[in-house]
Structure formats: structure tokens, C-alpha cells
Design brief:
Layout lengths: L7 E5 L3 H13 L3 E5 L2 H11 L3 E5 L7 H9 L8 E6 L4 H9 L4 E4 L4 H19 L4 E4 L2 E4 L4 E4 L2 E3 L3 H12 L7 H9 L8 H14 L4 E4 L3 E4 L3
Helix pairs in contact: 2-3, 6-7, 6-8
């Protein structure tokens, strides 16, 4: 894991008591912490603070966490930051919406500080392993560069959020191999994060919308594969 003293965490929640508890525990672990009480302020703070991790409440005044996450992912400075949703809502649609807009993890309240620290550490461990897999893939008119997180299709550069990129890269790096949703969840999101299987379908759909339909094939009742020819 990276040096925690260099890792910046932005805590976004409209409940002051939660913000203080999280800030105290994060600083105790050596993280550099900034806070915001709503989504609108969070976007402004993030642009200046440039966090590595964002802890984001869903239900907030002025602007909810889902819309805030969308705006954060559009900031070049923080588009690859880890975003962990913090919420008291247990409904499935909330979880799907969270991952649909680019969340990396989803934790329900009440939050246990030790468990939160473990989840943050797990995200960095998984990211560190992926860094060791840096490479360049060229298939047909598609070029995927793992080191710079860039995709070039013909003469057009395509930008994907982190998880969509990792999903495309993984499938392209194992062409003509069929993976079911559970296997893709394991490889892309890891075993430390509980993610609905439907999240894979959402990310596949988004990748196809941006890159094209012809690259990833659905094998009905089985899973997905990247087509070589």
C-alpha cells in the first residue's frame, strides 16, 4: 500500500458527528483529511485538494451523492480517485446507482472505523496488484494502454471511468475467454467489496456505448468475452 501520509481523503457528509468521527480516525491512521458538508462543496474542495479517496454520503441536501459522484468523475484531477459511498440506505437500487456512476465501494451506516480502514487498505492493495500488470494491447482498431489509462480507437481517444477501463482491459487481455459475472466481479472489484452481479451488466453496457458493440460479446446464460476477430 502507498504511504498513508501521502494519501488524501475527502470526507463528504451532512452529519457533523459522522464527519468528526471519520476525520479523527483517518488522521489517527496518518491520512491527510479534508471535509465537505454537501455535494456542491465537495466538488469545489476536491478540485483543490485532489483527494486519493473520497468518502461520499448519498443522502445530502442541495445535491445527492450520486450526482456528486458523476461530477467528481468528470474532474481530470480526481477521475481515478477511489470513491466509497457511505449511506444508511439498504435498497438495491441505491447500490446499483452508486456503482453505475463510478463508485469503488459501498458501505452502509453505522460505519465501523476499523472496517472502513480495512476497506480503504484493500482498495490500494488491489490497485497495487493491477499496477504490476501495466501493458499495451492492440486488437483490430483498438489500442488500450494500461499505463496511461487511455484508449484509442482509430484516430479517436476514448476516456473511460476507472472500473469501466479495468473491465475492458481485463477482457481484452484474455480474448476469446468467456467469464461469468462472478468471475468478473472477483477480478475487477475484488473479494473485499460486496457488489451486485448486475453491476457487471451496467458496466458492460457503458463500455459498449463508448467503445462499440462489436468487441464484447454476450454468451447467453454464461457471461461475456472479448472477440478477437
Amino acid at each position: 500500500m502507498a504511504d498513508k501520509k501521502k494519501i488524501k481523503v475527502l470526507v463528504v457528509d451532512d452529519e457533523p458527528s459522522i464527519v468528526e468521527i471519520l476525520k479523527y480516525n483517518l488522521q489517527k491512521e496518518g491520512y491527510d483529511v479534508a471535509t465537505a458538508e454537501d455535494g456542491l462543496k465537495a466538488v469545489k474542495v476536491a478540485a483543490k485538494f485532489i483527494p486519493d479517496v473520497i468518502l461520499l454520503d448519498i443522502m445530502m441536501p442541495h445535491q445527492d451523492g450520486v450526482e456528486t459522484c458523476l461530477q467528481l468523475r468528470q474532474l481530470p484531477e480526481v477521475k481515478n480517485a477511489f470513491i466509497i459511498f457511505l449511506t444508511a440506505r439498504m435498497e438495491e437500487y441505491s447500490e446499483v446507482a452508486a456503482f453505475d456512476v463510478g463508485a469503488d465501494d459501498y458501505i452502509t451506516k453505522p460505519i465501523k472505523p476499523r472496517a472502513l480502514m480495512s476497506r480503504i487498505a484493500a482498495l490500494f492493495r488491489r490497485d497495487s496488484k493491477k499496477d504490476q500488470e501495466k501493458g499495451h494491447i492492440k486488437i483490430r482498431d483498438l489500442q488500450i494502454d494500461r499505463s496511461s489509462y487511455t484508449i484509442v480507437k482509430g484516430d479517436k481517444t476514448i476516456t473511460l471511468p476507472k472500473k469501466e477501463f479495468e473491465l475492458l482491459y481485463f477482457l481484452a487481455n484474455h480474448p476469446n475467454v468467456v467469464y461469468n459475472r462472478d468471475e468478473l466481479l472477483h477480478h475487477i472489484w475484488g473479494t473485499d467489496v460486496f457488489v451486485l452481479a448486475r453491476t457487471v451488466d451496467v458496466h458492460i453496457r457503458k463500455v459498449r456505448e463508448k467503445v462499440g458493440e462489436k468487441y464484447i460479446t454476450t454468451i447467453k446464460g454464461v457471461g461475456y468475452k472479448f472477440e478477437l476477430g
